[in-house]
Structure formats: structure tokens, C-alpha cells
Amino acid sequence: MTLQQPGVGGAPPTSVRTAQAARPLTRVTVTPGEGNRGTRLASRVLFLAALAFATIVFVFPFIWLLSASLKTRADVFSGSLFAFPLHIENYAQIFERVPIGRWFVNSVIVGVLAAVSVTISSALVAFAFAYFRFPGRNVLFGVVLATMMLPNVILLIPNFLIWNALGQVNSPLFTPLWAGNLFGSAFYIFLLRQFFLGLPREVFEAARVDGASYPRMFWSVAVPLTRAALIVVFIFELKASWTDLMKPLIFLRDITLYTLPRGLQSLVALFNPQTGGQGDFQLVMAATVIATVPMIAIFFVAQRYFIEGIATTGSKG
After folding, report:
1. What angle do CA 243, 188, 221 make, to 5 degrees?
2. Backbone angles phi, psi at 82, to 5 degrees
3. How far is it between the farthest Cα atoms of the chain?
4. pLDDT of residue 164
5. Contact of 227 with 199, CB cutoff 8 Å
6. pLDDT value, residue 139
7. pLDDT in the model for residue 158
8. Bond preceding residue 85 cis, omega within 30 of 0
9. How far apart are CA 223 and CA 228, in angstroms?
10. How high is the mean pLDDT in each 10-residue block of the chain (317 residues)?
11. Helix (H, G, I), strand (E, B), or coil: what is residue 128?
């Protein structure tokens, strides 16, 4: 018989067993996802850092433009971002030397007329393609989309000949700059048609049962439901018209009829030392800031509708 010594290679001593039995058990609770909390925090920090870097990259050109508009002629292209003292009088000088206030008003008139006309006309055509069912609808819609493949440069000479024959070149009504939008835009027609297709057809059928005509259905039903998309189209065209240089360069001759892009182009030629100017590019920068700030303000005011329209457009094909 082999005697087993207590606590050596066998059962623990009685005192040890008693202590272990009297010791309370401790339960370890692990929170779900606690191990991934640090990873999520690191990912969020990296995302915010990348977002801040991208914001600086995109905003820096405007900051440089603003700083250059507040410098002297000698320091406008210097390496320093801001040179003190700031020369705010540059903005007063640009208003004294050129009719930039008139150019601003001209740009507002042309931009609003172009945006309103293309929004209404494109919405009418898009509603027709989305609601009505008729033979050849898809083929006709494909022809409309095919017009986007035509480069704008090949239309410059025909457009000039047409407007010149109508006596509208250098017109105070700015007809060549916006009247073409009365026939709609293929891109905006496609954009709005996709939005109209996402609307419940039962809403229009109910309106028809109540005796609504097709124009009434468009203005009272379709337009309120597509407000976000219409605002997106309006902003797109307003921005395109506001920054357009080609049409004003071709159709405008009188300096008082210039829009802001055409006026800025004339300022570069006026102040360029190679063409006899004095190199007052700080005034050009000030005029550029005046032309840029309205678009930034409009985007911030309408960004809620802008994002909503982009997010919902194309939800149904």
C-alpha cells in the first residue's frame, strides 16, 4: 500500500480544500464590442484627419486668393500668405476703375434668366417622358440624350450666325446668353426624368380622377414633390451661367454689358504688363473674390436641398 502524502503529488491538504471552498467565485463580464472600441476610435480619428486635410486642400486656393486681394502690387505674388497691413482699399479701387458693379448686376440678370428658363422647360419635357406612355418614347428620349455627345464648340458658329441674323449680338437683353435654355437641356431632362419616375403614379391618377388637367397635375402635384430636384437644376445652371466666359466673349462688345467672367478677362488684359498695363493684379484678385463669394453663399444657403436632390435623383430608372 502506498501512502499518499497530503499536498505532495496528490490531493491538497484539508486546510487548502476548506479555503478554496470558502472563497467566493468572481464572474468576469466582457462587454460586447469593447475590444473593437479602440479600433473604431482610431478609424474615426483617421477619417476626421483625412477630412480636415481634404478641406484644407480645397479651401486653400480661395484663402490665397483672398490674401492676394489684400496685398500691394509688389507683394501680390509673394510667398507670405497674409502681408500686414491689409489693403482693403483694393476693393474700393476696383469699383472706381471699372464698372464691376454693373457687371455684377448683368451676371445676376443672365444667371437668373438662364436658370429659371432651363429649369421650367427641362421639367416640362422630363415630366412628359416620365408620365406619358406613347410609341417611340424611349427612342425619342435616346435622341435627346444623344445631343449631349455634341461638343459645344461645333455649335458656336451656327449660334452666332443665328443670333447675328436676329440682331441680338451685343443686345442689352442678353438674349444669346439665356434664350437657348427655353428649349431645355438634355442633362437636366435626364436628371428630372429620373426623379419623376420615382414618384408614385397613383398620386397622378388620383389627381386625374379629381378632374385635374395635365398642366394642373404638373404644377400642383409634380412640382411640389420634386422641389429638391428643381433646386438642384437651378443651382447647377446658375453656377454654369455665372462662370461662363465663352458666350459673353462672343456675343458682348459693350463694356457696360459685360458679365463678371467677361469683365475679369478684360481686367487681365488691361493690367497685364505685356500689353501695356501696370501689373495691378491685386485688383484682379479683388474682382475675382467679388465674383466667387456669391456662389459660395448660395451653396451654403441651399445645400440642404442640394444634397437631398442629389441623394434621391436616380432612385428609380
Report:
1. 125
2. -130, 125
3. 128
4. 94
5. no
6. 93
7. 92
8. yes
9. 9
10. 46 52 52 67 91 91 90 82 84 92 96 96 94 90 91 89 94 93 93 89 89 90 89 92 94 94 91 79 92 90 71 49
11. helix
DSSP string, 220-273: IIIHHHTHHHHHHHHHHHHHHHHT--HHHHHH--SGGG--HHHHHHHHHHHH-G
CA dihedral 173, 174, 176, 181 (to 10 degrees): -90
DSSP label at 23?
A: S
> Per the structure block, which three cell numbers stand in for 214?
395635365
- Tell if the pTM clears 0.85, that is, is over it: no
Q: What is residue 183's DSSP assignment?
A: G
Return the pLDDT at 134. Answer: 87
Q: How far apart are CA 85 and CA 72, in angstroms?
A: 10
Q: Nearest to residue 179, comparing CAs of 149, 194, 197, 159? A: 159
Distances (CA, A) of 124 to 20, 144, 180, 189, 270: 85, 14, 15, 9, 44
The letter for the amino acid at 135 is: P
Residues 6+ apart with CB under 8 A from 194: 313, 314, 315, 316, 317
What is the CATH T-level fold of the domain 98-312, as seen in this structure?
Answer: MetI-like fold (1.10.3720)
pLDDT of residue 6: 47
Given a contact cutoff of 8 angstroms between Cβ atoms, the answer to whether 100 and 309 are in contact is: no
pLDDT of 198 reads 86
For the chain, give every domain's residue range: 39-90, 98-312
Return the C-alpha cell found at 173: 437683353
